[in-house]
Amino acid sequence: MKKIFILDELDCANCAAKMETGINDLDCVNKATVSFMTKKLVLETDEDKMEQAIAEASKVVKKIEPDVVLRAK
Q1: Using CA atoms, how far apart are residues 55 and 11, in angstroms rounded to an integer?
Q2: In this predicted structure, what is the pLDDT of residue 17?
Q3: Which pLDDT score is estimated for 5?
Q4: What is the pTM of this model?
Q5: Residues 56, 2: Cα–Cα separation, whole Å
Q6: What is the distance between the alpha carbons of residues 49 and 65, in angstroms, rounded to a whole number?
Q7: SS3 content of the chain, % helix, strand, coil (to 5)
Q8: pLDDT, tens digit (0-9, with 9 covering 90-100), for 14-51
């Protein structure tokens, strides 16, 4: 299952790369792609793990860039 999120207030390309790496390291995530240019996160995981993946991805985002807001597209 794939979901797309907007990363409001993302203003650092290096932070976007760190977010992508951190989210891809999560066990519940199959694949994550963070685009600094479009400020989007594409999250792929099993359907039954999506809620957990969103929660954990949000924690990774907040740890790296506290001002970024993760919202569904």
Answers
A1: 22
A2: 97
A3: 97
A4: 0.94
A5: 16
A6: 24
A7: 40, 30, 30
A8: 999 999 999 999 999 999 999 999 999 999 999 999 99
Q: For the CA atoms of 22, 19, 68, 63, what is the dihedral angle to 10 degrees?
A: 40
> Which pLDDT score, from 0 to 100, does residue 31 have?
98
Residue (of 21, 4, 31, 35) closest to 64 by Cα position: 21
Give me the residues paired with residue 33 across strands.
42
What confidence score (pLDDT) does residue 43 get?
97
Query: Considering Cα of 25, then 57, then 71, then 16, what sign does the dihedral take?
Result: negative
Q: Which helix or strand (DSSP H or E) is residue 35 part of?
A: strand 31-35
Residue 24, judged by CB atoms within 10 A of its CB (0-12, 13-18, 19+), counts as middle
- Distances from the Cα of 54 to the Cαs of 16, 25, 62, in angstroms? 16, 13, 12
